[in-house]
Amino acid sequence: MAKTEKGDEVAKLSFEQALKELEQIVGRLESGDVELEESIAIYERGEALRAHCDALLKTAEAKVEKIRLDAEGRPKAAEPLDVDD
Fold first, then answer.
1. What is the mean pLDDT of the chain?
2. Long-range pairs of 57-64 with CB within 8 A, sequence gap ≥ 24
3. Structure letter (DSSP) for residue 8
4. Between the CA atoms of 6, 11, 13 and 15, what dihedral angle is there, to the nearest 10 degrees?
5. Which residue from 10, 24, 23 is spatially nearest to 55, judged by alpha carbons?
6. pTM value?
7. What is the DSSP string of 39-83?
8. Which member of 8, 38, 66, 70 lies 3.0 to 4.6 Å from 76 by CB, making a disulfide possible if both were Cys?
9. % of the chain with per-residue pLDDT over 70
10. What is the rounded distance in angstroms from the CA atom of residue 50 to the CA atom of residue 30?
11. Is the dihedral of CA 54, 7, 10, 50 positive or negative?
């Protein structure tokens, strides 16, 4: 499978699917029972999964809104989440 096909496959995964697979890869690598060639291949897959999860999280953060309250404590408006606060 070509690298772009792998990337396309990873891009189709939900955050939960990608995270689950990434956890499985980490477990396999930590066990030390994987041959060198396979370790390299699954490490590369893990890196693609990590990048995908990171991108999905950044997208989700951009969608999060914080609610501004008026003087009486009622929701007044919404504004984008300020990640620097």
1. 82
2. 57/15, 60/15
3. H
4. 130
5. 10
6. 0.69
7. HHHHHHHHHHHHHHHHHHHHHHHHH-EEEEE-TTS-EEEEEE--T
8. 70
9. 66
10. 16
11. negative
* Token duo for residue 54: 């990171």
Domain assignments of the chain as residue spans, ordered by start: 3-80
The DSSP annotation for 11-46 comes to: HTS-HHHHHHHHHHHHHHHHHT-S-HHHHHHHHHHH
Q: What is the Cα–Cα distance from 32 to 38, expressed in whole angstroms?
A: 11
Per-residue tokens: 62: 């951009």
Length of the chain: 85
Total Cβ atoms within 10 A of residue 45: 16
Instruction: Answer whether 49's CB lies under 8 Å from 10's CB.
Output: yes
How far is C-alpha 63 from the chain's CA centre? 15
